[in-house]
Fold this sequence. Notes:
The structure holds two protein chains of two kinds.
Chain A: E1 4-16, E2 21-33, E3 37-41, H1 48-55, E4 63-68, E5 71-72, H2 78-88, E6 89-93, H3 104-114, H4 119-132, H5 148-160, E7 166-170, H6 178-195, E8 198-202, H7 206-209, E9 214-219, E10 222-228
Parallel strand pairs in A: 3-8, 3-9, 6-7, 7-8
Antiparallel strand pairs in A: 1-2, 1-4, 4-5, 9-10
Helix pairs in contact in A: 3-4, 3-5, 4-5, 5-6
Chain B: E1 3-4, E2 7-8, H1 9-33, H2 35-45, H3 49-88, E3 93-97, E4 110-111, H4 112-122, E5 128-143, E6 148-158, E7 186-190, H5 191-197, E8 204-209, E9 212-222, H6 226-229, E10 237-241, H7 242-249, E11 254-255, E12 257-262, H8 270-286, E13 292-297, H9 298-341, H10 343-351, H11 356-401, H12 411-437, H13 441-445, H14 461-497, H15 503-534, H16 541-574, H17 577-596, H18 609-629, H19 634-650, H20 662-665, H21 671-679, H22 692-711, H23 713-716, H24 718-727, H25 731-743, H26 745-776, E14 787-790, H27 800-806, H28 811-814, E15 815-824, E16 827-830, E17 841-842, E18 845-848, H29 850-855, E19 860-863, H30 870-879, E20 883-886, H31 912-917, E21 923-928, E22 935-944, E23 958-961, H32 962-968, E24 974-981, H33 986-999, E25 1006-1009, H34 1010-1053, H35 1055-1063, H36 1068-1103, H37 1105-1108, H38 1119-1145, H39 1149-1154
Parallel strand pairs in B: 6-10, 7-9, 18-23, 20-22
Antiparallel strand pairs in B: 1-2, 3-12, 3-13, 4-11, 5-6, 5-8, 5-12, 7-10, 8-9, 14-24, 14-25, 15-18, 15-24, 16-17, 16-21, 19-22, 20-23, 21-22
Amino acid sequence: MSEAIIELNSLVKTYDTGEVQVQALRGVDLSVGRGEMVAIMGPSGCGKTTLLNTASGLDDPTEGSITIEGTDLGSLDDNTKTSYRATRMGFIFQFYNLLPVLSAVENVELPLLVSGTPPAEARRLALAQLDRVGLGEWTEHRPGQLSGGQRQRVTIARALVNDPTIVWADEPTGDLDSVTANQIMDLLTGLNREQDQTFVIVTHGREIADRCHRIVHMRDGLIESEEQLVG
Amino acid sequence: MDSLFGIPLTSILVALLLALGAILGVLGVIALRHPLLVRMGLRNIGRRKAQTSLIVIGLMLSTLIISAAFATGDTVGYSITNEVYDSFEEVDFIIGFDDEFAAERDDRYLTDDFLASLTAEFGDDPDIDGISGLVVEVLPALNADRRLAEPVAGFIGVDPSSIDTFNGLKSLDGELISASTLGGMRAYASQDLAEQLDISAGDTVQIFHSGRPAAFEVIDVVQDTSLTEAQFGGGGGLITSLDVAREVAGLEGQLSAIAVSITGGVRDTLDRSDAVEGRLEAFIDEQPDGHADIIFTKKQLVGLAEIIGSIFVTFFLIFGLFAIASGILLIFMIFVMLAAERRSEMGMARAVGMQRLHLTETFLAEGMAYNVGSAAVGALLGLGVAFILVLVLGQIFSDAFGFGITFHFNWQGFLIAYSLGVVLTFGTVAFSSFRIANLNIVRAIRDLPEPQPLAGADRSVGALFQSAAGALWLVGWLVALVVAGAATLAITASVIGAAFGDLPTVLSGLFGGAALMAVSTLMFFGARTVRRGAFRNQWNWRHWLLWAVWLLVFNVVAGVVWLLQLSRDWAGRHRNAGGWAVIMVILGALLVWLSGWGLDALSGLQGQAFSYTSGFNLAVLGVAMLAVYFGLNQRLAFSAAGLGLVWYWILPLPFSLFTHLESVVGRDLDPVDGLTRILGLPRPMHIEGNVEMFFVSGIAVTSAAVIVIILNAELALAPVRWLGGLLGGIAPAIKTAIAYPVAAKFRTGMTLAMFGIVVFSVVVMATLNSNFTQAFLSESANGGFDVAVDVNPNNRIPDLREALQDAGYDPDTTIAGVGRLVSVFPQVRRSADPDIPEAYDPYRLAAVDDEFIDFQRLPVEHHAVGYDTDEAVWEAMRTDPTLAVIDASRLQPTDNFGGGPETSDFYLGVSDHDLRHSSWDPIAITVRDPSTGLTTELKVIGVLEPQVTAVIPTFFAIFTHASAVEEHFEGGDLEEYFVVTTATTDEAAVETARDIESTLLELGVQANSIDKLIDDQASQSRSFQYLFEGFMALGLIVGIAALGVIAFRTVVERRQQIGMLRAIGYSRRLVAVSYFLESSFIALAGIGIGVVLGLAISHNLLASPEFTGGTDIDFQVPWARLAVILAGAYGASALMTLLPARAASRVAVAEALRYE
Lengths: 231, 1156
C-alpha cells in the first residue's frame, strides 16, 4: 500500500437516542493509501455509512482519532473542517442529493463557489466536468428533468469538480439499474486511474466492490476482515 | 352598539352562531364516523411546536383585528353614551323655540303661559315626574380678582321650585344640592367654569349682558351636567335662580327652554321616550302661539352615541380588511404547505384506499383544531389591542371633545369576532383541504410535479363549449347549495328570532326559509335516491317500487333532479380550465356592461366602480387563461395580462377616484371607453366608486404586480445574481437564496402578495394622510389672516380698532389690518329652482368689508365667465353688492371628504366636475330673510378652494359685500374680525390674540391665533392618522408570520439538501446567510411592490379633483414616516427569519444525509 492518506484509530461512535445507546462503531482501525479504491461492505446496520460519515468529518466520533493527510480531524473546528471538505473532499450519495432548484451546471459549480473560485472560472470547470461525465448536452437541465443515472453523473461531477484528494461514496449505485450501475463504476474506476484520487465506497453489491482495490468487511460495528483484490 | 352596516348585531350574531354550530356539527359528524381521521389530523399538531405556534399566530390575526374593531367601537359608543347619561341625568327632553316661526316673532323665547299649559297638561301624567323652565344665555364671565375671563360662559337660571327633580345640581363629591339654596346674587359655578376662571366658593364672578356687569357670589362649585353647562356654551356655566337670571337678562315672563323628565331613573326611561315624545309633540302642535319644539331628547343622543360607536367599528373593519385578506391568504398557504409536506404520505393513504373526502376531513379536523383555539386567542388579544387603541383614543378625545373614554366591550361583539374568525378560517381551510385532496396518487407518492392545469388537451371550440357548460353547471350547483344553506339559516334564525317578538319578520322568514328548504331537500334526496338506484345497475322489484312511489310523490322534482344528476356527471367529465376561462370572460363582460351601461332591473350596479373594474379584471384574466388553453406560453399570457392590469389600475381611471384626467393626458384612459369611442358605440356612463375602491384597487393591483414579478422572477433577480458574483464569499448563498423562491413560485407569490397588500395599504394611508394634512392644515389654510376674533352677540362691537383704543390698547403697534365679517342666517335657494317655499334651505351669509377683501388670501377654485382671476372676483365683489363667492361644500353632496355643515341642504346644483370642465356663467341664488320674508338675488361668481374651511367654520358661507347685508339684513347677527398682525411670526399672532382678549375682557371677545388653531387641529388629525395607520400595520404581522412559517417549513423540507450543502463545503454561517437572504428578498420585494403601487395609486388619487374635492395638492411622499413603518416591518421580518436560519445552520449533517 502506498502512503496512508486516511488513518482511523480505535474509532467508536455511539448514538444516544435518549432511551437507548446504540454503538454503531466499536473501535475501528483502518488505513487507506493515496490513490487506493476501497469498498466497505457488510450487512445493513453494521456501521458502514456511520464509518464513512465519521471518517469524512460529517459526523464527530465518540472516541478514537481520524487522521487525513496527516491532519487530526478532531483538532479542527467546524469551519476549518468545512473548508477542508470543500477543497479536499468529494461526496457521492445514493439519492444524489442534488438541489432540485438548480440546473446541473449550477449544482456542479456550487463547491467551487463555496471554496472561492471566481464565478466564471467555476462555470468553466463545471461545464468541463459535466462534459467529462458525459453530460455535456444536459448542463442546463434541472435534476427533475434527468434520469437516475444522469443525476448520479451530476453528483459525480460535483464530487470531482474541485479535484479532491478523497472521494467518499455512499451506495453510489444503490438506486440504479445494473447497466447504469456498471457505467457509473466504469466512470469512477477510470477517474481513479487517471487522477490517482482516493475512493472510499460503501456498497452492498459484490460486483461493485469487486472493481475496487480492496474490500473491507464489517459486522456489528467492527471490521471483520479485509480482502485485497488488485496488487 | 346595536347594528353594523345597518344589520342588527343580534341578527349577525345569531347567523354566525348558527354557522359556527353547523361547522362544529360537521366536525362532530366527522369525529363520530371517522375517529381515526380526526386522530391523524390532531396528532399532526404536536409534531413541530415552533411551526404550530406560527400557524396559530397566522390563524388568529383576522379574529384579532375584528375583535379589536368591535371593542374599540364599543368603547367609543359606551363612553359617549355614558357622557350623555352623566350630562343629562334625569333630563329626557329639552323643549325650545321652534326656528320655523322665527319670521313671526321678534324674539326666540318660550313664555310662562306655555310652561303653565304644559304643566297643567302633564303635571299628573304618571310617565312624567318633572317639568321646569330655564333661562340660558351665553355671556362673558370674569374673575376680576385674577383678571381671568371666559367669553362664552352659560348663564343659567333655574326654577328652585321644580328643578330638583332633575338631580342636575351635584357637588363635586356627588352629593345632590337643592336649588332652594339659590337666592339673590348668588350662584353655583360649574366645574368647567371654575377651572377656566380659577374660582372657588366665596369668590365673585361677573357676567356682562349688553355691556352691563352683574356680580355673583359663588356658593360652590358643582359637577358639569347638561343643566350646569347648558350644552350651548363651551366654557362652563354659572347657575342662579330663574328670577335673578330673568332680571339680569331682561327676560321677564320668558324662558329659553323647558326641561322634561320621564318618571324613573337616569338609564331606564328610553323605552318610554317615544311614547312620551309623541304626547308632548301632540300637545305642542295644539298650542297656536307656543312656537315650541322638542330640540333634544336623551334617546336621540344615546342613539347618536351608538351610531358613532358603529362608525368606529366600520372604520376599523374597513381599514382592517387588508390585514384580514392577508390573513386569509396566510391560512390558505399554511394548509397548502402542510399538504406539500405530507404529499407522499397522502398519496400512500390514497393508495391504500382512503377516499378524497377522507383526506379533506383529516385536514379539516387538523385545521379546525388550530382554528377553534387560535380564534379564541385572537379574540382575546383583540381586546388587548383595543385597550391600547383606547389609550391613544382617550387622549385624542380628551383634547378634541373634552371628555375621556374608558375601555369597554360587550360579549356580543366578542362572540361575533370569535365566530366570524372561525367561520372565515373554516371557509379557507375547507377550500384548501378540498384542493389538497384532489391529488394524483402516483404523482404524490413519487413526488412528481403537477401537470400544467391550464393547457387544454382538446382545443376544439366544441370541447371548449362543453367545458364552459360543465363549469356553468357547477356554478349553478353551488348556488343551489348556498340557497339551501341560506334557507336552513333563515329557518333557524326565524325560530330563534321569535324570542324577540317581531312576528311578521319571523313568519316571512319562516315561510320563505321553509319553501327554500323544501326544494333543496327534495333536490338532495332526489339526487341521492336516483343515483343509488339508477346508476349502480342494481335494479330489482324493490327499486322499481321505490322509484314508482318516489315518482308519485315528487314526480316533477324527480325529473328535474334526475336531469340534474345526469348533467352533473356529464359536467364533471368535461369541465376544465378552458370552461372556467369562458365563464370568467362572460361574467366579466357582463359586469362591465351592467355597470357601464346598465339594466334598469339591476340599477344597483349602474355606474358602480366596484363591479365595473372587477368585471374588467375578471375578463382580462379569463382571456389570459383562454390563451394558455389554446397553447400560448403561460408566462407570456399571464405576464401580459398582469402588466395590462397594473397599467389599468395605475393610470388614471374611469371612476371617480381618478376621473377626468383624460383631458390632461389627451387620450383614452379607460380601455373600454376608448374602445367604444373607436368603434362608435354608445359610451359607458360616469363610473363612481367610494371607500371600497381603496380595498378593491389594492388587492387587484398588488395581485397583478405579483403575477408579473413571479412569472419573471429570473429576470427580476438577474441584477442580484450578477451582484452576487461580485461579492465572492457569499456568492453561493445568494445563488441558493435566489434559486428557491424562484422555483417555488406559488409559495413566493402568496407571501409577496401578503406582504405587498398590507404594505400597500399602509403606504396609501400614510401618504394620503400626510398630503391631506399638508394641504388642508398647512398655514395656507389661514386665509391670509393671523387672528380670529369672535364677538359675543350680547356685546356687539361695531369697530374693533375703536373698541381697542377705547379700552386703552393701541392697535396700530401690532395690527396691520382688520377685516370685519358679519354673519346672517337667511334661507337660500338657487334662483333657477321652482319658486316654492320648500326649495329654501338655511345657510350662512358672510358679509365682508373692504379691509377684509384687501387682506384676504382665500383662493378661488372656480371662476365664472368674466372673472378669470382671484383678484377679478374679489374686486368685483367689492364694487357690486349683488355678487357673491361661495365655499366648495355647496357644490354637491360628496361621500369623500369635507362635507360642510350637514344641517343645510342648500346646494348650487353643479358639481366640481361641471365647473372644472366647462365655462360657466354666474349662478343666481335667492336669499330670503326669515324674519321679514323679503328676498334678494345674488350672483355666485366664484367657488373657494376647500381648504379655506378647514379650520375656520365661519368660512362655510356665501361671501358677499357688507353693504348687501346692511341693506337687506339690518346689520347682521354675528360679528367676527380677522386680524393681520404687523409681525409675521406665530408668536406675534398668539400674543396679539391674548392682548385683544384681555383688553376686551368685559365684552367677552374670544381671540385665537389662526395658525395655532391650525397646529392644534393638525396635531389632533395626526393622532387619529397614526392610530389608523398603526391599526392597519397590524396586517404586517401577517406578512411577518408568513415569512416565519415559510422559513421554518423550508428548514424541514430541505433538511437533506442542507446536509448536502454542508457536506460539499457550505459553512454553518453560509447556510444561515442563504436562508436569511432568501426571506429578505421576499420581504424586500413585497415591501417594494407595496411602496411603488401604493405611491402610484396615492399620487393618482391626490391628482383627482373629485377625490380631493377640488383642492390642488402638491403631491409629496412622506419618506420619513414610510421609512419608520417599512424599516420596522423589515426589521421584524428579519428577526423572524433569524431563528429558522439558525436552525438550518445547525442541522446535523450526517443525520440529514441519511434519510430522504
